[in-house]
Amino acid sequence: MEKTFQTGSFSFRLRFPEELVLPADMEKFAVEKESADYTYTITIVDILPEAEGELLVNRVDLQVFRNGEGLESRLIGVKGEERPYALYRETAQKHAQVFVGRWYLDGVAKYEVVFLSLLALERRLSERPCLILHCAYLEYQGKAMLFSAPSGTGKTTQAGLWEQYRGSHTVNGDKALLEYDGKAWTANGWPVCGTSEVCENKKLPIGCIVMLSQAKLNQAWRLRPAEAFTSLYGQITMNRWDREGLVKNLDLLERLVGKVPVYHLACDISEDAVKTLEQELVRDSSEEEAAAALLQKSVLQRMEKKA
């Protein structure tokens, strides 16, 4: 079988046997295209081939190798399992072979994050103006509002509060693909949604990013770019062993915090948390509008003097 998928501007083609069942949310990203940016050929095997190249990463659930041509191989596993369930091997600049162990086909079909690990999409996307952010992605007033924080902090809870009290709509409960076109940033759907079970393929301009922390007293404030960079760094998916890709990601993160307003919300789980953030967003927007009006007035005055 052969199917093509797309998230943001990146498209990829999968060639796979019928016995491999794709996770249900993948179908939301299926597209009809004659060509794709990258192609994966997936094969089911009883014994995984050997990885090739120099060992770069040696973790319980992941081993990464790189050969002299800069192509990667990965042995992919799950913590607690005795052996890897797949081998990912790049064979050309735009093609990779993926070998999946027959003994783990049910897990690949059932768990989106397990399936997506086969494709090393974060490696492909590091070559493009994209960042993968761990967040709850909401649609609010025609723009993306992204709640980001370490797992267990309350991203899904805050998203639910905004749905309940402000009529927002959750696009993805766990991740978003952020893409920069040279002028503006957009949020895009991602085919993994964690335990939230909320996953849509939708593209929206980013209105703001909100970093969360738990607190008894609700407070919200805008972060300076350096503070925003530090807060977001740990929530961006990066291959920190890939020096070139890491540099690109850090450069993009710097551009992101320079373009998109980032706030911190220390909050409980009440409507007051929603009101607190809303008030800060309105106040900040009013200040920006006043500054823009002042700048416009200054420009007009200069033009009149020249005239």
Structure description:
The chain has 307 residues and is of the alpha+beta class. The chain has 2 domains: 2-125, no CATH class; 130-291, Rossmann fold. The chain is built from 7 helices and 17 strands. Strands 3-1-2-4-9-8-7-6-5 form a 9-stranded mixed beta sheet, with no helix packed on it. The chain is globular and about 65 Å long. The relative contact order is 0.12. The model is unreliable at 290-295 (pLDDT under 50). This is SynChlorMet cassette protein ScmC.
Keywords:
307 residues, alpha+beta, Rossmann fold, 2 domains, 9-stranded mixed sheet, 5-stranded mixed β-barrel, 7 helices, SynChlorMet cassette protein ScmC
Task: Give a short synopsis of this structure.
This protein has 307 residues and is α+β, with helices and mostly antiparallel strands. It is built from 7 helices and 17 strands.
Question: What is the β-strand count?
Answer: 17
Main sheet overview: 9 strands, mixed
Helix content: 25-40%
Strand content: 25-35%
Low-confidence stretches: 290-295
Rg over CA atoms: 22 Å
Write down the domain tally.
2
Mean pLDDT: 92
User: What would you call the shape?
Assistant: globular
Distance between the termini: 69 Å
What multimeric state do the chains show?
Answer: single chain
Give the SSE string. Answer: EEEEEEEEEHHHEEHEEEEEHHEH
The fold-level CATH name of the largest domain is Rossmann fold
CATH class identity of the largest domain: Alpha Beta
Organism: Fusicatenibacter saccharivorans
Protein name: SynChlorMet cassette protein ScmC
